[in-house]
């Protein structure tokens, strides 16, 4: 399958089975996903596996962040959650937003690779993603932020992934605005001369008054 085919067939799977890839199966996919464009090769990202009771820990953290007494059951929707973490590095050349873009690129590429390998994936976020309780549950450092989780599981037999609206590529692929031409230069020059002319006359009048 070509990269184009893999991208075109990708879709989010909101419901998955209890099957999940092993760590050994994940490692080569993570290695491949790490090949995304990365200015200065900072690798400002990492992933955290959540399996079994790890999901209960996340559910409790989500409830704490939301002020709820009951743990959230959302993390139980998939047997494997991969937390996507942006780990910002000190750099004079690579700003924070660019490093976050790298981490996002890794997550999206990994979702494509998992889908191609036969797994159902959906990238989930939400308003509680970057709360203190959730960050502490993941053991994040001061230079790190959570970008959400890849929910991973088996693709149910006979089920179809969520539908996506067609992309109007022609409307989204634009061009730079027309730049000013050389013919415009004289007109701008004339405008500047006109703007400065009155000031020059006032100066001449003042000098004449002074000589009387």
Secondary-structure element series: HHEHEHEHEHH
What is the molecular shape?
globular
| Residue runs with pLDDT of under 50 for 5 or more positions | none
Give the DSSP E fraction (strand runs of 2 or more residues). 15-25%
Q: Whole-Å distance between the termini?
A: 93 Å
Strand order of the largest sheet: 1-2-4-3
Helix content: 40-55%
Main β-sheet description: 4 strands, antiparallel
Number of strands: 4
Mean pLDDT: 88
Number of helices: 7
Which structural class matches the secondary elements? alpha+beta
* Radius of gyration (Å): 28 Å
Care to give the gist of this entry?
The chain is of the alpha+beta class and 212 residues long. It has helices at 3-9, 23-33, 54-66, 96-116, 132-137, 169-172, 184-211; strands spanning 45-51, 80-87, 119-124, 144-154. Helix 2 crosses helix 4 (96-116).
Give a description of the structure.
The structure is a single chain. The protein is of the alpha+beta class. 42% of the residues lie in helices and 15% in strands. The protein contains 7 helices and 4 strands. It has helices at residues 3-9, 23-33, 54-66, 96-116, 132-137, 169-172, 184-211; strands at residues 45-51, 80-87, 119-124, 144-154. A 4-stranded antiparallel beta sheet has the order 1-2-4-3, with helices on one face. Helix 2 (23-33) packs across helix 4. The mean pLDDT is 88.
Descriptive labels:
4-stranded antiparallel beta sheet, 212 residues, globular, alpha+beta
Annotate the secondary structure layout.
Layout: H1 3-9, H2 23-33, E1 45-51, H3 54-66, E2 80-87, H4 96-116, E3 119-124, H5 132-137, E4 144-154, H6 169-172, H7 184-211
Antiparallel strand pairs: 1-2, 2-4, 3-4
């Amino acid at each position: 399958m070509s990269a184009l085919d893999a991208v075109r067939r990708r879709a989010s799977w909101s419901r998955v089975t209890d099957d999940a890839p092993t760590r050994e199966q994940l490692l080569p996919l993570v290695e491949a996903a790490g090949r995304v464009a990365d200015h200065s090769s900072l690798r400002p990202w990492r992933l955290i596996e959540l399996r079994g009771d790890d999901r209960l820990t996340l559910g409790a953290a989500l409830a704490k962040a939301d002020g709820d007494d009951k743990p959230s059951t959302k993390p139980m929707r998939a047997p494997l959650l991969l937390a996507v973490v942006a780990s910002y590095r000190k750099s004079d050349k690579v700003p924070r937003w660019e490093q976050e873009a790298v981490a996002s690129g890794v997550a999206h590429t990994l979702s494509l690779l998992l889908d191609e390998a036969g797994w159902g994936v959906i990238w989930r976020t939400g308003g509680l993603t970057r709360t203190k309780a959730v960050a502490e549950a993941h053991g994040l450092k001061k230079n790190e932020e959570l970008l959400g989780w890849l929910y991973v599981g088996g693709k149910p037999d006979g089920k179809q992934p969520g539908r996506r609206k067609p992309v109007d590529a022609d409307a989204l692929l634009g061009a730079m605005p027309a730049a000013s031409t050389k013919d415009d230069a004289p007109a701008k020059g004339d405008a500047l001369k006109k703007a400065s002319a009155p000031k020059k006359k006032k100066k001449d009048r003042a000098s004449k008054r002074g000589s009387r």
